[in-house]
Amino acid sequence: MSVKNYLNRNKIGGLILIVVIVIAFGFGGFGGGFLSNNQNNIAKINKTNVTSQDLIKYINQSGISQKAIQDNLDNNIIEELLSNLVSTKLLELEIKNFEINLSNNSVSFGIIPVPMAQTGS
């Protein structure tokens, strides 16, 4: 066997290895993307996932302008919004778990005695 044939065979083997690695990272990324489909999850409460889409929806529904968010990135506004989303999600799960139902009448009954809820004050 000549040196030229040996080097050509090793180059092909090395090229195949590089192609396999590129394909694996291209499709799966780091962290075992082939084994789990949780790359979109940003939090988990018990068995319930909070996705990045949930956070985007929460931010859009919060009424906070994009400029206010951009101006406060250094003040950890994203972390604060995520914390609020997780708290809200946790409350929703507990309400569902304990089968709590609140009517509009019971909510009004709880709010009316609060002085700040009175009109004209």
Descriptors:
mainly alpha, 5 helices, two-stranded antiparallel sheet, 121 residues, single chain
Topology:
Blueprint (H helix, E strand, L loop, with lengths): L2 H26 L12 E5 L2 E4 H11 L3 H6 L5 H21 L6 H8 L10
Antiparallel strand pairs: 1-2
Fold and architecture overview:
- With 121 residues, the protein is mainly α.
- The chain folds into two domains: 37 residues; 63 residues.
- Helix content is 60%, strand content 7%.
- It contains five helices and two strands, in the order αββαααα.
- A two-stranded antiparallel ribbon has the order 1-2.
- Strand 1 and strand 2 form a beta hairpin.
- The longest helix has 26 residues.
- The radius of gyration is 27 Å and the shape is elongated.
- The termini are far apart.
Short description:
The chain has five helices and two strands; from the N terminus they run αββαααα. The protein is mainly alpha-helical and 121 residues long.
Instruction: Enumerate the spans where pLDDT stays under 50 for 5 or more consecutive residues.
Output: none
What sequence of helices (H) and strands (E) makes up the elements?
A: HEEHHHH
Largest sheet: 2 strands, antiparallel
What is the global morphology? elongated
Rg computed from alpha carbons, rounded to a whole number of angstroms: 27 Å
Structural class: mainly alpha
User: In angstroms, what separates the terminal alpha carbons?
Assistant: 97 Å
Helix content, binned percent: 55-70%
The strands making up the biggest β-sheet line up spatially as 1-2
Taken as a percent bin, the fraction of beta residues is: 5-15%
How many discrete domains?
Answer: 2
Q: Tell me how many strands there are.
A: 2
Q: What is the residue-averaged pLDDT?
A: 78
Helical segment count:
5
